[in-house]
Amino acid sequence: MPPAWAAKSQALSSLLRFPEALSAAERAVSLKPDLADALLARGLARAGEAIRQRDFGALRSALDAMDDLRAATVADPTLAPAWTSLGLAYEMLPGLLGGSTRKALHCAERLRALAPARGDLLQALILLEEGKWREAEPWFGRALAKAPQDPEVVGQWLDALDRKPAKKALGEAGKNARLLAEAPRLLPGVRTRARGVIAVSDAYLHAGQPEIAWNVLHDHLGLVDAPSLLRLQLGKVAAASGLHRPEGLLALDQVLREPLEGGSGGYPSAWWRKGQILLGLGRKEEARRAAQEALKLDPRHRGARELMDALRQDR
């Protein structure tokens, strides 16, 4: 069935398995060429592969992705995720490849009519990409007021506070103060959603409070919809901070033994974080093997390649 292939493709894209995602999407499109979800799935897979390629081949993938996303909005003008993806694509691509801030903002308007909070969020993200923090901030506020329990809205807002436009406007200390104020305020609304809890944990981590970042994850493991994602984040906090390294290794080992929900860097990231922790513990050969496992799964994984470089220099 075409919808099943489209759903499978989008699930694979969330796991960053873009070649498999593209294959599934192509199957869906071949069975029903005008299915909006299939066109969206193929556009997402092509866009993901373009980001990973980082070479001239990425240009063709990016252009093909734009064509698919536009076609998805034509096939079903009520498909909100298609407007989000198309709006971000218009904003991120340079003008020579079809990028346009004006067209991106038009997508936000169309999305706002379907999903008001997500439309406000898209408007905020577009303005953020333009470096217009003071204009973007009120749109984030509108989105949060409408959907305080939406982990995507919460996560994008907290991530925005740690990006260059916010740092330029607020200063490093001001940015950290905002993160430390917003994280506990927003946590209750997303306490059962893994992506929301991870966003709060990242906010504490980026504000220089890794112990609180760890505790937030640990305290919500039994509450969230996707605990494997929290275990992967525990590994990230341990790797980034040097705290709780043995517990972080245990969490990552469990991630690598069990099915991993989508919306994360997947198994390559788990191996990479494990390698970082092992290197921090002085277990260099094990760290090298972990980095190699990550690169087997994703030869372009930037973190794993940097870890291998660090291990070579440390010989």
TrEMBL record:
SUPFAM superfamilies, alphabetized: TPR-like (SSF48452)
Organism: Candidatus Geothrix skivensis
Keywords in alphabetical order: Repeat, TPR repeat
Highest rank taxon of the organism: Bacteria
Keyword Repeat: yes
TPR repeat start and end residues: 268-301
InterPro entries cross-referenced by the UniProt entry: CellSynth/LPSAsmb/PSIAsmb, TPR-like_helical_dom_sf, TPR_2, TPR_rpt
Protein name as it appears in the record: Tetratricopeptide repeat protein
Record carries keyword Repeat: yes
Organism phylogeny: Bacteria, Pseudomonadati, Acidobacteriota, Holophagae, Holophagales
